[in-house]
Amino acid sequence: MSRALCIQLINPNTSCAMTEVMAQTARSVAARDTQIMAVCPQEGAPSIEGHFDEAIATLGVLQQVKAGRDAGVDGHIIACFGDPGLLAARELARGPVIGIAEAAMHLATMLATRFSIVTTLPRTLTIARHLLHQYGFERHCAALHAIDLPVLSLEDGSGLAQQKVREQCIAAKKTDGSGAIVLGCGGMADLAQELTLELNIPVIDGVSAAVKMVESLAALRLTTSKHGDLDYPLEKPLSGRFAGLNLRDHYV
């Protein structure tokens, strides 16, 4: 009998409440024998809403990837729509590393010829545009929309952010000509299934998408290539708070 698959779900911000929301969503779609190890850094930014926040979050992501690698997890998910530190994490990891933005965009192109993105603050729309270009999906994206509320409004208990996400998704379906909608924040993970039923089009949450991608790659026995730029980092004496990222004798 093969052992259970273990996927590390990394919330790059420090919100334990948001980590739990994403963990519940991940477990609801994971295979019965898949274990979800949900973690977030103890220090860093409470929410990620710009380039500065992403730069801070990257160190925490890499620390968690290293810890997950040492614990023997089979794959990692970076559960922030900016996919902070994704390529660096792929260098560090043995198993596959999936960012939720890349995962959601990929699935959207398999389900519709055009998709829209609904995210939080307007300033993050530029980050989403950069990712669309980087991943080659800019021609597939009809429009980007922001609810103009911060990430942490999704967990304040008022329901206002959730209602605004719903309104933006309805408006996107009516005006964009899109066949699918991508939710542009990990904190929206628990909204996708209900919105899919209400709008009668695919509303895609990157956390769920990433879980199924890691499971699929594991089933195919595929992992990140170590030939070329995603080979393990060059071994060198890291110092200070970075010393813990040294892989030392584990380049196998």
TrEMBL record:
Q: Which domain of life is it from?
A: Bacteria
Coiled-coil spans in chain: none
The record's PANTHER family line, in alphabetical order, gives: PROTEIN DCG1
Family designation: Belongs to the HyuE racemase family.
Record's protein name: Asp/Glu racemase
Q: Which organism is it from?
A: Rahnella inusitata
